[in-house]
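Try this one yourself first.
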């Protein structure tokens, strides 16, 4: 039974987080909401932070990096409503999708780093 996340799987999680962070970073230009101040700046800052934290996690894994990405992912999910750009559909969906991916990967990495079994059956 797989009890902990191997370093290869952690690396894959970090690479997906890098891609997701870069995707969020370029999304204002890609989806045309660069003129929306709150949406664009949030995408640039959160996307860059997710990317940098995931790159750092590639070199030395610390659980704090995963907790930071979990918080950033959750922030990306709720930011469209808290910052008031939920009406900008492209920005809202870019933030929600990337946020869910990053938060799920970070939560999974945290869960498996504590050697919790996948199932008890």
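Now uncover the answer:
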């Amino acid at each position: 039974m797989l009890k902990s996340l191997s370093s290869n799987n952690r690396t894959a999680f970090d690479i997906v987080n890098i891609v997701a962070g870069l995707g969020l970073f370029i999304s204002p230009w890609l989806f045309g909401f660069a003129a929306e101040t709150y949406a664009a700046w949030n995408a640039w800052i959160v996307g860059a932070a997710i990317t940098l934290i995931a790159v750092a996690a590639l070199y030395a894994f610390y659980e704090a990096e995963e907790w930071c990405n979990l918080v950033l992912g959750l922030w990306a999910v709720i930011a469209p409503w808290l910052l008031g750009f939920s009406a900008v559909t492209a920005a809202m969906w870019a933030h929600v999708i990337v946020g869910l991916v990053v938060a799920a990967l970070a939560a999974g990495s945290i869960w498996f780093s504590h050697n919790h079994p996948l199932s008890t059956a």
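Discussion: Helices lie at 7-30, 37-59, 63-82, 89-113. The mean pLDDT is 88.
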